[in-house]
Amino acid sequence: MKERLYEILSEEKTHEIIPFLKTLKAKDKKELVPAIKKMDREISKIVMTKNSYHTSGSAEQHSIIDIASFVCMDRKHYGKDYWSLFRNMEQTNEILEWGCPAWFSDFINESVDAEYTAFNYQHIIEWSAKGYIQPSPELLGSHLSDHPRDLEKYPETLKVHFWHLCEFPSRSLPFYKEWLPLIQKLINEEKIERKRFLKECLLASNRNFNKNVTGWFMDAFTALKPSDEELIELQDELFAGLPSVQSKAVNTILAHLKKIVSSTDFKSEEFSNFLPNLLSSEVKATLMASLVLTEKLLHKEETDTENLGMALSAAFVSKDESIQLRTAKIIQKYIPASDGVKVAISHYSENMLANARLILEDYLSNEDYELEEVSVERMELIHQENEVQEPQNFEDLMFFLPQAIDHSGTYYYDLALSGLVRFAGDADSGSVKLMEPVFQKACKTIAKWEVAPYSIILCNMIINYGLMLIEKFPYELRNLDKIYRKIFDEESTREQYKHYDKKIGPIEGISFGSFTMSPYKKIAVDVFDKIKKGNTIPLLSTVTHEPCWISPAALVERFEIYQNENIVPNDYDVQLALQRCALDNTDEALKQAEEKLKGEYKELLVFFFNKKNTPKGPFTHPSWWMTAGITRSPETVFEEFKDFGYTTIPKEFFTGNYNWITTDNKKNSYYPVELSITIPKYHFEKRQHPLFLEYCIAEQKDSSDIPALLWSFPNTPAHVIAKIIKIGLFYSGLSEVYERGLTLRTAQALHQIKKPLDSMGYLFLGTTLLDGDKTIRNTACEIWLEHVSLQIIDNVRLGEVIGLHEKLEWAPVKRFTDLIQNNMMNVSRNHNLALEVMISSILLQMETPITNLKKLLEIYHEILALNQSKIDAGLQDKLDSWKENSTLKKVCSLLLK
């Protein structure tokens, strides 16, 4: 039986597969399933050619397997393939005639969730007539929506199935332009009931359809031009659509309610029940339409002004000044200042803008509303809450390593290396069995085509360690060699590709396609050497506190161990440790260094921990001293270091101060305004004592792992941030996933580092506050909020960056004003004062009015009112000049008062 199927497949005898299958009994079909699956895998293997790829099986062979799978498999094994078998419908119908599976009807009904099917509405009708399926209403509606033709061919189509289309539309309905004219024609011919269809259009607003489908029904409702009489009759359905999550539905319904609001038959009380929810909307068009309707309602006699007044107060949730002013004027004009209305409005007083408060003075209490000041706690990079938890024994390490593989590029990587140094020699015949799943995960991860550089190092470390353990525990780890051989053979086939970087083998022989990873690789080689020799002296650079910090006290303790063992630490390990050391509180560590250390170790850390100290040497390891100097005082040039030979490295890489400019590319429509940053070229020089930094600044390639480098330079991240700005922030309209991901990860890393910003930090933060991606903007906003609370931010400097961008309209000002109103304003008095300084600084950079400058000025006016401040003296002349602009005249006059 299996041999016969294999013969048909190998000789591509498509005409013989159905006769063969007809001879099989139910038991035979079931037994044949594993063989069918195996053959399917064989013909589905990808064959790579020089310019393309294809499967190993021919079209005839795939057809044979498709037929055999359908006939022999049950529903579970056949899966959800709605394409392969049905490409040849004549053949499919032939199969169904002699052997329609019992599961076929359920299988077809589930096709409503499929992206695409090779059968259509007509096929479903035919199969239903022959009894092959019992189609569900959802199936009929979904497939009919793809079939805007021949609607009168089957009596049930217009009588029943069309209404299923309204109740269960597919995603494709809005993309067939034929539907609406066809429906209008059938309504005119009275073949579709007009009133019922109008009602179905409104009910679509709350059926959880996607916005395209909901929008189509709203457009259809409007296109049919319902009369006032029809609208009055449909009031219940109109009101039912007001809570819809789709703004298109809500705004369409409000537009039609506006036509009948003046009618005596309008259900005012029912509408007022929906008003608070409508006025809490984030959609300005919904808010304005709701206010217009409410004002029309208040024109009518015998209107319940008390309830409407209390409902109107919900509009003050919006921070849009035009909405608040419109609401305040309606309340002042129509709503008496009763106790109930005053209480309702007072609930929103904290959110009310200054001009709205002036209008509603009679409705508010006389108590002045003041925001509290945030009490500032001293920022500490090293504290108990962020201390990392290291593995404490071999068993802990085995459970920790899979997490480290999953958290590539974070402190998990460092703790994994540290754990291997400490506990690699502790494996015994019982605990070593835990190594197999860890080894398997490392192999599975490294076997992928694209693997993060830190994962390549760690997985290789685990694999090589596992191979080393096999010699000691051959019985317990007998499966490891088989697992390793499989991935080793797979990589051997990949090595034929020109740009493939070898990932498996001795650590010193692996490659990443990234020069930046060289010092990490050198540290890893040293770690594996420790493992082989049973040397448990700790690494200096292992993180002690999240996300990337080393406690100064721990650094002293580790140097003391090397001193006592009379061993010189790895050069790159020392530099990485210095780069990661938290320098905000070093007094106690300084004392310990002076007491416990000697010679160069002592002089190095005494210099490093005290900014007042000058370097005294001995300078046996120039790279250590240079790294300490850059990390401690990046803008200081130490005369003592002049003979180290590092003068060929451009000073920008030490100071972190790069030249940048926002330019107007008038000739470039794709990038009209561009952020240009100048990063000097640096070619790596072979020297006796290379800097860790040199490997990073000499790397010219882009890499998605660039943000992870911030964990290696948390004290001086400027050279990393500058590169990210050049790659991913040169234009505010970038929408590519790569650039967005790169920028977001950098913003998240900066948020975790929690240090005062340097010049590139301010450029990055100011630029991301204007970014087109909402998540990136919100993350940048979180950085600003926290830095203001900790009083570690210069808002003048930040405002200058934003102002220099926006004077050329680098990004729409509305992005920034929305962010201020929704996230940055009225957080605390401290934050309002910081906003005042920042906006003043932004405006000082402006020369001529830009689009939406009015909104920024209105927010500035509001902030000044809240802070009881006056405009920056430097803005006087600018506002006088801008006042000549008709759009800005009013707000400029208010600011100049």
From TrEMBL:
Transmembrane segments: none
Domain DUF6493: 2-285
Coiled-coil intervals: 576-603
Domain DUF7824 span(s) in chain numbering: 384-650
Keyword Hydrolase: no
Matching InterPro entries: DUF6493, DUF7824, DUF7825
Entry keywords, A to Z: Coiled coil
Signal peptide range in chain numbering: none
Domain called DUF7825: residue spans: 653-897
Name listed for the protein in its UniProt record: D-tyrosyl-tRNA(Tyr) deacylase
